[in-house]
Amino acid sequence: MKKYKSHFLIVIVLVLGCKAKVDSTAVSKPQDDERPKPNVVLILTDDLGWQDVKSYDIDAPSPYETPNIDALAEKGVQFWQAYSPAPTCAPSRCAIMSGNHPARAQKTHVVGGAPPSVYNNKKANRLMDPWYSGRMPEDELTIARVLQQNKYITGHVGKWHMAINHKAYPQPEDQGFDFTASDRGATKRRANRLQNFATTDASDPYRLDENGFPYHQNSEDALTFLQKNKENPFFLYYATWLVHAPIHTRSEALLKKYCEKLGVAYPTDPNKWPLEGQNNPYYCAMVEMLDYYVGKVINYLETTDDPRWPGHKLIENTYLIFTSDNGGMERAHGDIITDNYPLDKGKINAKEGGTRVPLLIAGPGIKKDVESDVMINGLDFYPTILSLLNIEKPLDKNLDGSDLSSLLLTDPTDPTLVKDNNGKQRETMMWHFPHSSYQSTLRIGDYKLIRNYDHQGTSKPQFELYQLYDSSKGKQQRVDIEESHNLANQLPELAKTMNDSLTQMLTEMKASYPYYIPYFKGDDLLGKENVPTVLSHSKNRDEVTFIVKQNGAKIKQANLIYTLNGGARYEEWFRLSADVKFNGTVKVKLPKGTTHYVLNIIDVNNFLVSYPEMQTEKKARKGNYASKALIN
User: Fold this and answer.
1) What are the b/e assignments for 27-41, b being 16+ CB within 10 Å?
2) pTM for the full model?
3) What percentage of the chain reaches a pLDDT higher than 90?
């Protein structure tokens, strides 16, 4: 039986030029003294999985029809081992836009910016998430801001979700975009997905076009940006709302088409879809709609004259990059949505199904119809764009990805052309997800290590080691991309070496880890009876002193969790290290503007004690954390 997992798709259409700055080794860049400064279009789709694109079929045929995306694969390079920076949406988006690894940025999951707390039941849950940021810093030097500084017109269309809420600060215009539009278009939720389908009526806001597809404002906004700014070098970040939940389609014809194609009965219950596998006709229709709207953008570039380059079309000065922000979402809200098989798991998990994504790149100087097994990551887009546009990396700007320009313009199948920050061939890639599945993972060459944080007293192993491929004969041969044969006990030295490397990387990035919950009712968490107790606190102006009793477990770390807008609609919390004295007393100075604050104590056994104790995350979503916190 197939396993059911989840996906996200990032489509990046890069309009890049021939005067790209690349490695000193010779590359076949297109040369034309008349060629103007190139454009960049980044299309990021939402929740489209590795096996949801027809051209990525490997073990079984996909029912989804994606002719425009498949055509893009034929126009350039199809990467079979491309990865997202994270297994969920917001951290991947922030990483792509900022160039910073999610672990380094402390942006490892969606939402964030809240005090660590138990999700729902403090006696039933073993682990709680660490504090993680709700957003990129407002002054982050995003790729959009750098291009804006280099005279590009920058536009964002569609989903943002790089703050604690879609509408929370900072918004696109705060982080380098001249234009932004976020209409959900045809994906807007409706009460009953079996009613109110789009029609051809002129008054219908989702009226069907001549090809039978609903009017989609998200797509039209992208086309409008291109139309209005084609006379300037432009950067368009087109973040589609498709194919994220709610899973529905406004095209009744597409729904019927896929019911017939799949051989399933037309749905009668609008609230769930129970069939396993890639058998959801709503989702099939959504994937085809996504392909259609992406195709409209590509078609516009192919058919529109370039005002800055007479006699040429916009596409001739355009690099197209198509990928995903994380793996596909297999189940949600009563639906089985799709299936990432043969990859294991999906969105919200750091196994292959949650992080491996489609990636297609085409453009001037890039060979057509090439398939590549080179390992790529969404973090690579920032440095690659700079290099291809011949823009110097800003001074002191950290970039955790690699420049792919030499690979793209020389030989897309040669992994030696992808260098790490030390100038050596990159063979290593790391993910950190201290949430939900509680994992960090590391891939080195053919092998992948998974470190499970929730292993104490469970049947789950602390380490999993998988051989994804065998490159011993000079060409990669598929071995276990399913991650079904754990080799950790057979290859303990390799597991240890990889775990040591993982620790080194996470330590350098100052990564945050999940914590044990001292209230857990089970008796398999050692040390919970020894957790420290906060007895009292006092405040002198802006300095707070906490008196702590150490009950057998010393304090390893203490953090002040504080907010500047307690009780506000978009309440946001930050973290500051506190000073632990030799006797366990904790002192900290409140930042200016603090309205509410909480103390977190982490002991040597990795238990977290909150003072005051916070309400559960689930309850806080309906209110706020400030109501339980200390008031400044």
Assistant:
1) bebbeeeebbbbbbb
2) 0.93
3) 84
